[in-house]
Amino acid sequence: MPQQSMHSPIGDLTVTSENGALVALDWGWARDQGSDALLDEAKAQLEAYFDGGRQTFDLPLTPAGTAFQHRVWQLMAAIPCGETRSYGAMAKDLDSAARAVGMACGANPIPVIIPCHRVLAANGMGGYSGEGGLQTKIALLRLEGALL
Asked: Using CA atoms, how far apart are residues 148 and 21, in angstroms rounded to an integer?
């Protein structure tokens, strides 16, 4: 699987593609670097996002997960840049429990692009499984104008 790494305001990131779609975005620098048109485009879109010039991503995604996780990730992807939703509100839409939504958020293999940082607890931030934890979540929400 080809991987390409980049520097970002939230740390080094590595995107991974397989069969013409992104399958992962991980923190850190990959030992082996590869390139293809999709990874080049993903990197360009991420750079534009971090520069404040892009609010949505237009990339083919095939994250590995359960049917329920895919439903949660689709709902997360529909949250507009600069806006947030609560785990509870998403759970209600999915006829599920807030804890199950939180677990699916934590299992998101393509954070930032599938914006799990836009999902908050009813009484505050909630968690964030990416490197840097809540500080990274806060930085992403500030970048998008959701937190001033």
From this structure: 34
Candidate list 13, 116, 119, 141, residue with the active-site label: 116
Range of the domain at 86: 67-143
Q: Is residue 73 part of a domain?
A: yes
Both structure tokens of 99 = 């804890």
Residues 6+ apart with CB under 8 A from 89: none
Q: Name the phi and psi angles at 79, rounded to 5.
A: -75, 120
pLDDT one-digit tens code per residue, 42-100: 999 999 999 998 999 999 999 999 999 999 999 999 999 999 999 999 999 999 999 99
Q: d(Cα 17, Cα 83) in Å, to the nearest integer?
A: 28
Cα-Cα end-to-end distance for the chain: 39
pTM of the full structure: 0.93
Same domain, yes or no: 77 and 134: yes
Write out the two tokens for 10.
Answer: 């939230």
Q: Is 81 a catalytic residue?
A: no
Total domain count, the chain: 2
